[in-house]
Amino acid sequence: MSKSKASEPNVVFIGSKSVMSYVLACITQLNEGNQDLILKARGRAISRAVDTAEIIRHRFVPDAQIKNIEISTEKIERSEGGTANVSAIEITISKKK
Amino acid sequence: MSKSKASEPNVVFIGSKSVMSYVLACITQLNEGNQDLILKARGRAISRAVDTAEIIRHRFVPDAQIKNIEISTEKIERSEGGTANVSAIEITISKKK
Q1: Which of A64, A86, B31, B56 could form a disulfide with A57 if both were Cys (CB 3.0 to 4.6 A apart)?
Q2: Is the pTM of this model over 0.95?
Q3: Contact A55, A47 (CB under 8 A)
Q4: 3-class SS at A66?
Q5: pLDDT at position A79, please?
Q6: Burial of A40 (0-12, 13-18, 19+ CB in 10 A)
Q7: What is the mean pLDDT of chain A?
Q8: Min Cα separation B29/chain A (Å)
């Protein structure tokens, strides 16, 4: 039995670690029986999110498919004050039944 | 999916130049009356392609919308021999009528 965290579906945030560590995190989630998985990334990590999704479906989870991809712009606070715009991506992966 | 090059719509390849140079190239294409525009990028340029699409629709062309996003894996030849896998993205932008 997997517990759903609040109402949000299973989200993996892609940051600056190695691609393989995110691939592993995603595979773990999918093997726990979660049907849908959302990869979220901002800025330069966007390419890594795409890498992660591609490696999962081509190499490790053949019955995984890309369900949806959305891009957006987020405002982030700069440490020196003011805000900056940063692009973001959300890739939804789901397992075929 | 095989596309014939002749019928291929307007494609802008995103590489390592500044985001704004690609934004300008896309705006020029859209202003020439082209309804659809495809941004293509590979590897680390993927984030730049997302930036380009977001800047176009939020800042310069309010009636532009993201029609489709696809990700894939391409094989590239290494200069030292052998092949490497690289992720790729295709973002289709279209102008609302």
Answers
A1: A64
A2: no
A3: no
A4: strand
A5: 87
A6: middle
A7: 89
A8: 21
3-class SS of residue B12: strand
How does pLDDT run across B44-53, given as a tens digit for each residue?
999 999 999 9
Three-state DSSP state, B42: strand
Using the predicted structure, report yes or no on whether residue B7 has a pLDDT greater than 90.
Answer: no
- Residue of A42, A46, A67, A85 to mutate for B, most B C-beta atoms under 10 A: A46
What is the distance, to the nearest Å, from the Cα of residue A71 to the centroid of all Cα atoms in its chain? 12
Shortest CA distance to B40 belongs to which of B95, B89, B93?
Answer: B89
Judged against a pLDDT cut of 80, whether residue A4 lies above it is answered with: no
Quote the mean pLDDT of chain B. Answer: 89
The whole-angstrom distance between B47's CA and the closest CA on chain A is: 5
- Rounded Cα gap, residues A2 and A10, in angstroms: 11
Q: Is the dihedral of CA B80, B83, B84, B86 positive or negative?
A: positive
